[in-house]
Design a protein that fits this description.
- This protein is α/β, with parallel strands linked by helices and 328 residues long.
- It has 13 helices and twelve strands.
- The chain folds into three domains: 102 residues, Arc Repressor Mutant, subunit A (Orthogonal Bundle), CATH 1.10.10.10; 96 residues, D-Maltodextrin-Binding Protein, domain 2 (3-Layer(aba) Sandwich); 102 residues, Periplasmic binding protein-like II (D-Maltodextrin-Binding Protein, domain 2).
- The longest helix has 28 residues.
Length: 328
């Protein structure tokens, strides 16, 4: 590929002038960016041209035009095809991001044309997702079909971080130190229970203090689980340690491990009811921390979009106060 009309890499002022020009954006062509990425990924102009359904000579010309806009060579020829230069690799990284954003834009516009008029980005802890959100989201969606909900499941600490950094409009999780800067509204109350096999020695108990479980093997949650933090703190208060045999990533996996005899585990009662397998048994924990709130968090509820405000109202207006000791 000829680079006779392309400023050399030793011309920084000329390159800077090209890249800083207000016309730079207008000279970029999304179709050419896509074809350039195909060239980089396949290592062949001919192959990329075939994928793009145009002649190789036409693609070669478009790459040359792109190089002129950027101001430096983007591809190097070799015996088996082409490979990106250092600048070409950087452009390919940005191009992929741009093309992904364009695809998201296309999908959004398609939804809007089909009647979607709002979106709520929601992140929630496993506790909320496993217990309450499926039913609540289904009810909200039925009443508000024009609003799209994007749900991501994180640990409580990650939920707080996502809302604080404005990566999500709303978060639902139990209280933790990270939620301190956020505004909150009450969502639900949950009760933690001890889950074990029917033949476990503790299964005959009607209720337990967590301290009574510390001599038994336990299944823990991996990462920054707030429940795990509570259990570790309770064990330290007893000058004991948790006999944790294995860590898992989710409550369903915890149930499976308990079922296989790997130990006992603590989880919300509502999640156990949804996930319970045959031969598993739950015993209520009497510790004060075993009854805890699930809240909705936002940076500022007053500044939420109309769709997000409607979502918060929908989740909080239909929930009546629970009696003491309720499990949801």
């Amino acid at each position: 590929m000829s680079h006779a009309n392309i400023p050399s890499a030793e011309s920084p002022r000329e390159i800077s002038s090209l890249l800083s020009s207000r016309s730079f954006l207008r000279q970029l062509d999304l179709g050419t960016l896509e074809l350039f990425v195909l060239c980089c990924e396949g290592g062949s102009i001919a192959h990329a041209a075939a994928q793009g359904q145009l002649a190789a000579s036409a693609l070669s010309k478009r790459i040359s035009e792109l190089e002129h806009v950027v101001g430096v060579p983007l591809l190097e020829r070799h015996a088996r095809g082409v490979r990106p230069t250092f600048v070409g690799e950087q452009l390919a990284i940005h191009a992929r991001s741009i093309l992904d954003d364009v695809e998201h834009l296309r999908a959004d516009l398609a939804e809007f044309s089909q009647g979607v008029h709002g979106r709520v980005q929601l992140c929630a802890s496993a506790s909320a997702v496993e217990q309450f959100l499926p039913t609540d989201l289904a009810a909200f969606a039925q009443r508000n079909p024009e609003i799209r909900i994007e749900l991501h499941q994180y640990s409580s600490r990650a939920v707080a971080a996502a809302v604080l950094h404005r990566e999500a409009d709303l978060g639902i999780c139990s209280p933790c130190e990270e939620v301190a800067p956020l505004q909150c509204k009450t969502y639900r109350t949950e009760r933690l229970v001890l889950v074990m096999r029917d033949d476990h020695p503790l299964s005959a108990k009607g209720q337990l203090e967590y301290a009574q479980t510390l001599d038994h093997e336990q299944i823990g949650m991996r990462g920054s689980s707030t429940v795990q933090t509570l259990l570790s703190r309770a064990a330290r208060e007893q000058r004991h340690s948790v006999r944790q045999r294995i860590e898992v990533d989710g409550l369903s996996a915890m149930c499976r491990m308990i079922e296989c005899g790997m130990g006992i585990g603590v989880m919300p009662q509502g999640a156990f009811a949804a996930l319970a397998r045959e031969h598993l048994h739950a015993v209520a924990l009497t510790d004060a921390w075993a009854v805890r709130a699930l809240n909705i968090y936002a940076v500022d509820f007053a500044l939420l979009s109309t769709a997000a405000k409607r979502f918060v109202e929908g989740l909080t207006s239909t929930i009546s106060p629970l009696p003491a000791g309720g499990n949801d």
